[in-house]
Amino acid sequence: MHIESYKTDVTTKEDAKFIVVLLQFIISDCIMNFDLENNDRVLKIETNRDIKEMVYGVFNKQGFHCQKI
Fold first, then answer.
1. What is the pLDDT of residue 63?
2. What's phi and psi for 28, nearest 5 deg?
3. Distance of CA 57 to the CA centre of its chain
4. For position 65, what pLDDT does the model report?
5. For residues 3-41, b (16+ Cβ closer than 10 Å) or e, as one string?
6. Is the pLDDT of residue 13 over 90?
7. How far apart are CA 29 and CA 48, in angstroms?
């Protein structure tokens, strides 16, 4: 397992929870959490495979932006 971190433009806890629910539906074998206190509003995902394109797809479909850091 390794941790992927994404800088996001998500600002509310509600939006963060919604994104996590969508991501967990698509990528069910990962552990993820948001750090909205961080200036970059970081989403961290523990995974053992390449999920970057799936994460980008969910964010884009919901009108949000994220960038792997």
1. 97
2. -75, -15
3. 11
4. 97
5. ebbbebebeeeebbeebbeebeeebeebebebeeeeeeb
6. yes
7. 9
In the numeric block, which tokens belong to residue 30?
Answer: 């990962």
User: How confident is the model over 3-17, as a mean pLDDT?
Assistant: 96
Instruction: Report residue 7 as tokens.
Output: 């800088």
* Spatial separation of the C-alpha atoms in residues 49 and 64, rounded to whole Å: 23
Alpha helices in the chain (DSSP H): 13-26, 52-61
Query: pTM of the full predicted structure?
Result: 0.91
Rounded Cα gap, residues 10 and 2, in angstroms: 23
The helices-and-strands tally (H runs, E runs) of the chain is 2, 4
